[in-house]
Amino acid sequence: MRPRLTAPPRLRRQSGIALIEVLVAIVLLGIGVLGTIGLQGRSYSALADTGMRAEATIAADKLIGIATNDLANLNAYALTAGGSPGAALQPWYDETLAHIPGARIAVAVTAPSTTAPGRMTVTIQWMRKANSPTSKHTVTSYIAPAQ
Question: Residue 119: beta bridge partners?
Answer without folding.
Answer: 110, 142
